[in-house]
User: Which sequence fits this backbone?
Protein backbone atom coordinates (compact mmCIF):
# COMPACT_ATOMS: atom_id res chain seq x y z
CA UNK A 1 0.00 0.00 0.00
CA UNK A 2 2.88 2.36 0.82
CA UNK A 3 4.38 1.82 -2.62
CA UNK A 4 1.07 2.66 -4.28
CA UNK A 5 0.78 5.90 -2.32
CA UNK A 6 4.38 6.85 -3.18
CA UNK A 7 3.96 5.93 -6.86
CA UNK A 8 0.70 7.82 -7.29
CA UNK A 9 2.27 11.32 -7.32
CA UNK A 10 4.87 10.14 -9.86
CA UNK A 11 2.16 8.68 -12.08
CA UNK A 12 0.26 11.98 -11.98
CA UNK A 13 3.26 14.16 -12.91
CA UNK A 14 2.81 13.91 -16.70
CA UNK A 15 -0.89 14.80 -16.38
CA UNK A 16 -0.08 17.76 -14.17
CA UNK A 17 2.62 18.97 -16.56
CA UNK A 18 0.22 18.70 -19.50
CA UNK A 19 -2.45 20.59 -17.58
CA UNK A 20 -0.02 23.44 -16.97
CA UNK A 21 1.08 23.81 -20.60
CA UNK A 22 -0.05 26.74 -22.71
CA UNK A 23 -1.75 28.84 -20.08
CA UNK A 24 -2.30 32.40 -21.29
CA UNK A 25 -1.05 34.78 -18.60
CA UNK A 26 -2.19 38.38 -18.19
CA UNK A 27 0.10 40.45 -15.98
CA UNK A 28 0.35 44.05 -14.88
CA UNK A 29 2.93 45.93 -16.91
CA UNK A 30 6.48 45.56 -15.68
CA UNK A 31 9.85 45.39 -17.45
CA UNK A 32 8.25 43.72 -20.51
CA UNK A 33 6.25 46.91 -21.19
CA UNK A 34 9.27 49.21 -21.46
CA UNK A 35 9.12 51.53 -24.49
CA UNK A 36 12.49 50.14 -25.65
CA UNK A 37 10.74 46.79 -26.22
CA UNK A 38 8.18 48.07 -28.76
CA UNK A 39 9.00 46.40 -32.07
CA UNK A 40 10.11 48.86 -34.78
CA UNK A 41 8.60 50.38 -36.79
CA UNK A 42 6.06 51.36 -34.14
CA UNK A 43 3.41 52.18 -36.74
CA UNK A 44 3.43 48.58 -37.99
CA UNK A 45 3.44 46.97 -34.55
CA UNK A 46 0.90 49.06 -32.68
CA UNK A 47 -2.84 49.51 -33.35
CA UNK A 48 -5.70 51.32 -31.70
CA UNK A 49 -9.31 50.23 -31.28
CA UNK A 50 -12.51 51.66 -29.81
CA UNK A 51 -11.86 55.19 -31.05
CA UNK A 52 -8.32 55.18 -29.66
CA UNK A 53 -9.27 54.07 -26.15
CA UNK A 54 -7.51 50.70 -26.51
CA UNK A 55 -4.01 50.21 -27.90
CA UNK A 56 -2.23 46.92 -28.62
CA UNK A 57 1.49 46.69 -29.33
CA UNK A 58 3.97 43.90 -30.02
CA UNK A 59 6.80 43.85 -27.49
CA UNK A 60 10.20 42.15 -28.02
CA UNK A 61 12.12 41.44 -24.82
CA UNK A 62 14.88 39.62 -26.77
CA UNK A 63 15.26 36.99 -24.05
CA UNK A 64 14.29 34.34 -23.41
CA UNK A 65 14.66 33.36 -27.06
CA UNK A 66 11.71 30.96 -26.77
CA UNK A 67 9.50 33.60 -25.15
CA UNK A 68 10.45 37.05 -26.45
CA UNK A 69 7.06 38.19 -27.87
CA UNK A 70 4.50 39.86 -25.61
CA UNK A 71 1.21 41.60 -26.38
CA UNK A 72 0.91 44.97 -24.66
CA UNK A 73 -2.65 46.12 -23.86
CA UNK A 74 -3.44 49.70 -22.85
CA UNK A 75 -7.18 50.01 -22.24
CA UNK A 76 -10.01 51.26 -20.09
CA UNK A 77 -10.96 51.35 -17.33
CA UNK A 78 -9.23 54.57 -16.41
CA UNK A 79 -7.68 55.26 -13.01
CA UNK A 80 -8.47 58.31 -10.88
CA UNK A 81 -5.56 60.04 -12.62
CA UNK A 82 -7.04 59.35 -16.05
CA UNK A 83 -4.52 56.78 -17.27
CA UNK A 84 -5.50 53.44 -18.80
CA UNK A 85 -4.77 50.04 -17.36
CA UNK A 86 -1.54 48.49 -18.66
CA UNK A 87 -1.28 44.71 -19.14
CA UNK A 88 1.01 42.29 -20.96
CA UNK A 89 -0.15 38.96 -22.32
CA UNK A 90 2.19 36.00 -22.50
CA UNK A 91 2.22 32.26 -22.15
CA UNK A 92 3.09 30.25 -19.04
CA UNK A 93 4.55 33.35 -17.36
CA UNK A 94 6.82 34.30 -20.27
CA UNK A 95 6.27 35.58 -23.79
CA UNK A 96 5.55 33.72 -27.00
CA UNK A 97 8.20 32.29 -29.32
CA UNK A 98 6.85 34.59 -32.05
CA UNK A 99 3.84 36.68 -33.03
CA UNK A 100 2.50 37.76 -36.44
CA UNK A 101 1.16 41.16 -35.38
CA UNK A 102 0.26 42.14 -38.94
CA UNK A 103 -2.35 39.36 -38.98
CA UNK A 104 -4.10 40.65 -35.83
CA UNK A 105 -7.90 40.70 -36.18
CA UNK A 106 -10.53 42.24 -33.92
CA UNK A 107 -14.27 41.93 -33.44
CA UNK A 108 -16.75 43.42 -31.02
CA UNK A 109 -19.69 41.87 -29.20
CA UNK A 110 -21.52 44.12 -26.72
CA UNK A 111 -22.11 41.13 -24.44
CA UNK A 112 -18.43 40.16 -24.13
CA UNK A 113 -16.34 43.07 -25.39
CA UNK A 114 -13.47 43.29 -27.87
CA UNK A 115 -12.09 39.96 -29.06
CA UNK A 116 -8.67 39.77 -30.69
CA UNK A 117 -6.95 36.91 -32.51
CA UNK A 118 -3.35 36.79 -33.64
CA UNK A 119 -1.11 33.97 -34.91
CA UNK A 120 1.63 33.09 -32.42
CA UNK A 121 4.45 30.61 -32.11
CA UNK A 122 4.41 28.50 -28.96
CA UNK A 123 7.59 26.85 -27.69
CA UNK A 124 7.26 23.06 -27.44
CA UNK A 125 9.70 21.69 -24.82
CA UNK A 126 9.28 18.15 -26.18
CA UNK A 127 10.76 19.12 -29.55
CA UNK A 128 12.63 22.27 -28.48
CA UNK A 129 10.96 23.99 -31.44
CA UNK A 130 8.15 26.54 -31.82
CA UNK A 131 4.78 25.45 -33.14
CA UNK A 132 2.06 27.54 -34.77
CA UNK A 133 -1.04 28.44 -32.76
CA UNK A 134 -3.50 31.31 -32.36
CA UNK A 135 -3.84 33.59 -29.36
CA UNK A 136 -7.43 34.68 -28.76
CA UNK A 137 -8.26 37.12 -25.99
CA UNK A 138 -11.27 39.15 -24.98
CA UNK A 139 -11.12 42.56 -23.33
CA UNK A 140 -14.03 43.91 -21.33
CA UNK A 141 -13.37 47.65 -21.34
CA UNK A 142 -15.94 48.29 -18.58
CA UNK A 143 -14.23 46.01 -16.04
CA UNK A 144 -10.73 45.70 -17.51
CA UNK A 145 -10.97 41.89 -17.47
CA UNK A 146 -8.86 40.12 -20.09
CA UNK A 147 -9.40 36.43 -20.74
CA UNK A 148 -7.32 34.50 -23.22
CA UNK A 149 -6.73 31.07 -24.63
CA UNK A 150 -4.58 29.30 -27.18
CA UNK A 151 -6.22 27.74 -30.21
CA UNK A 152 -4.46 25.05 -32.24
Assistant:
Amino acid sequence: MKRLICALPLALLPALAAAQENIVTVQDCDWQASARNIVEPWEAHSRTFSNGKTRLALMDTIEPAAGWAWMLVLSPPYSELGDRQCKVIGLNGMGFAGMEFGALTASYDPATGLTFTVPVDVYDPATAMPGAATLRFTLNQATGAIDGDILP
